[in-house]
Amino acid sequence: MTVINAKAKDLKTISRKLKESLNEEPIEVTNASHLHGLVAGLKHGEVIIQGNAGDYFGVLNAGATIRVTGDVGNYTADNMTSGTIIVEGNAGYGAGQYCYDGAVIIYGDAGDFTATMNKGAVIIVVGNVGDETGTYMLDGDLVVVGDAGENFANFVIRGNVYIGGKWKSLGHNTRVEELTQGDIEKLSVYFQTYDIKSDPVEFKKIVAASEKPFYK
Amino acid sequence: MTVVGAFCVSVNREVCINSRMPGKCATCAEVCPHGVFALDAYTGEMRIRNYNACVGCRICAEFCPEDAIRINPAESEYIARFPWTLSTVEEIHHKAQTGDYLLRGFGTQQPTPHFDTITVVPSQIASPEPRDKYREECDLEVVIGEDTCEKPLHLKLPFVWPAMSFGALSKEAKMALAIGAAQTGIATNTGEGGLLDEEMWLSRGYVDQNFTKKEWEPGGYLIIQWSTGRWGVSADYVNNGDAVEVKIGQGAKPGMGGHLLGTKVTEEIARVRGIPVGSDALSPCRYYDVQNLEDMKHMVDFLRDVTNYQFPILFKLGPSRPYDDVAACIELGADAISIDGLVGGTGCSPDIVTQGVGIPTIACLPPAVQALKDHGVHRKVKLIALGGIRNGLDAFKAMAMGADAVGFGSAAEIAMGCRVCYACQKGNCPYGITSQKPEMRARLDPIEVGQRLANFIHACAEEVKILTMLSGHNSISDLSTEDLRAMDMNTAALTGLKLAGYDRPLSFWEEGYKPVAMKANGN
User: Fold this and answer.
1) With B346 labelled, which of A196, B141, B388, B469 sits at a CA distance of 20 to 30 A?
2) What does the pLDDT read at residue B119?
3) In terms of Cα–Cα distance, which of B343, B520, B314 is closest to B404?
4) Which of A75, A139, A215 faces B274 most closely, judged by CB atoms?
């Protein structure tokens, strides 16, 4: 295992080192909490961040499997197109925005604007999420095991939003539906894969009321 | 709805084939994409069914075999009725009936201070001698990111195609733009609608996806747009171009994101953008993943990192507070900044925003240039002027005011065949430029239209060359505001140019542009 100590190093140095040693997986990075945009655009490989990570962590991820043992900053997994990002701690504002595919699993809480404009990824938050979560979601699955804040799933267009706890208020263009057998099976698979202790039967599902909410 | 009741369709019944022999000709009804004409099912007679639906694209007049159709602006008859002109009256009726506000394409229709009231000052005996356009050389090349990136853009001519998305434009129109860029050595732009595969090789001058057969010299560049909707964006996407443009805003609808109405979202567009077929793609007005300038700085950092520090990073701004906006972009490390004026074009925008939001292109340039000068990077960080640039004369004036290059957006569409009917948002473009319908797109041949675009660019380059040389310069980088004069008080007040005749700027411009503290948030 390659270990990269990022202490007092800049993004360019660490990023070049990461790309050079990509084939000697897995790579471990330590002391990287000051770096923003770390592990960006990797197509394969396995990276473990020991401790916390900064903003824009795993941005444009295109296939790498990345695990963080601590907390992450804002905009985690921004614009991911493939791969898996696992955060063992909490995430800040806007985790999992603009994702096309892949999976983001946050074992702690996540902030406001989580999974905004999600276009097809699976985003799972085991803790609670903040306000405006799932805004303008275009496809994919968002699973919140805990509670959600205001304006939950505002202007969702397509895709499924599952929630185990309560929400403060629902956003526009939403409809609450009962879980189907397929949903329960899907959630069970997610929970089993990522070792989450929760019962899918108690979840509620929120979908779009209309695919064309803006102009007639 | 776009403009209602603005055009008067008249048919000369004496020459119209259908009037003489009902049922024998229905060309106008067949070609009109807006249902202005209708055939009587029983008699075969052609009738004008809906005057108000006419947008003035003149496709019917062009296809009419007997040249029997005339389209005239209806407005001229009603000028005496200002402000209650026919189109205003029809607009109010439309709103009263439907409760919908108007959307429109293309750009503003209102008279806006523009380059027309600026004149070029030629060289005579007391100034540097004029250069000989026919027998001497003139340097028109512009380099973006020369000192900062591993792969700078060497634009052969000081022009770019501004961002126009696949979705707003048809696939054929995007291909034509790429071919035009390849033939002239300028840059084309993906726009925010994702990357069309063909653009990748066509823009570089290759006709095949393996980059083996080069058809067009010298080959152009492809600018990748990174925008708020992030349609079709991936790590590969940003690496497929030669530069990355971060879109902040655009001239036609500053403060709003891109609009693509569901009528234009076909299966292909839906696949590229990742949205349901027929659903509106309305980009957010701001980046959901940026809350402040520090975040934006980190965004620029990771964009450079993902592209291996090879490509220039450009910013595109709408016309708001050019001094502060440009200063912010410089501090973020931009290699070039595009600034789009009020006259800038769009595929779709709320009517009032296109008409009444933003400041004119000519008023954007002096503060923007001052910001570059105050940071000591004028002509290093390149300034690209956009918004209603129509020809080499406008381009020259923009460059003399301090821009390094200009973009032809609306003019490129017109060079492709557009007749300016302000209805791009409907997706019915009869020339196949802003339509996704197969029958309309079939009318646009990318290679032929690409040649037209290249011709247009070459003509504009010659015009810029003439003007540069007659004002005594050998290079466009030597141009300055001394080469221009304002012809009226209004223009002199807006731009700080010397007033023709008086030969000095108006008194409040004597010390140049003075930045004022930004009070955007009222603090």
Assistant:
1) B141
2) 97
3) B314
4) A139
Nearest CA distance, B121 vs chain A (angstrom):
49
> What pLDDT, on the 0 to 100 scale, is given for residue B126?
86
Question: Quick check: B238 contacting A, CB < 8 Å?
Answer: yes
3-state class (DSSP) for residue A80: coil
Q: Please, which residues have CB within 8 angstroms of residue A58's CB and are 6 or more apart in sequence?
A: A38, A39, A40, A64, A66, A76, A77, A78, A80, A83, A85
| pLDDT over 50 at B523, yes or no | no
Q: Say whether pLDDT at B515 is over 50.
A: yes
Tracing tokens 């779709």 back to the chain, one arrives at B348
The answer to whether the CB of B56 falls within 8 A of the CB of B6 is: yes
The count of C-alpha atoms lying within 13 angstroms of the C-alpha of B367, restricted to the half-sphere facing its C-beta, is 24
Choose the closest CB to B233 out of A74, A79, A116.
A79
Q: How far apart are CA B32 and CA B440, in angstroms?
A: 11
Side chain identity, residue B45: E
**How many Cβ atoms sit within 10 Å of the Cβ of residue B486?**
24
d(CA B339, CA B368): 8
Query: ipTM score of the complex?
Result: 0.95
DSSP-derived letter for residue B404 is S
* Phi and psi at residue B75, to the nearest 5°: -55, -40
Contact A38, A15 (CB under 8 A): yes
CA distance B221 to B154: 9
Helical ranges in B47-105 per DSSP H: 59-63, 86-98
Amino acid sitting at position B39: L
Distance from CA of A67 to the nearest CA of B (A): 19
A119 min Cα distance to partner chain B (Å): 6
Task: Determine the Cα–Cα distance for residues B427 and B354; give it in Å rounded to an integer.
Answer: 18
Q: Quote the strand ranges of chain A, DSSP E.
A: 2-5, 27-30, 46-50, 62-68, 82-87, 103-106, 119-125, 139-144, 160-163, 174-177, 204-208
B301 interaction partners in chain A (CB closer than 8 Å): 11, 36-37
Res B182 pLDDT > 70 = yes
**Best CA proximity match to B485, nearest among B122, B137, B101:** B122
The whole-angstrom distance between residue A121's C-alpha and the CA centroid of its chain comes to: 8
The answer to whether B392 touches B463, Cβ cutoff 8 Å, is yes
User: Using the beta-carbon criterion (under 8 Å), do B302 and A81 form an inter-chain contact?
Assistant: no
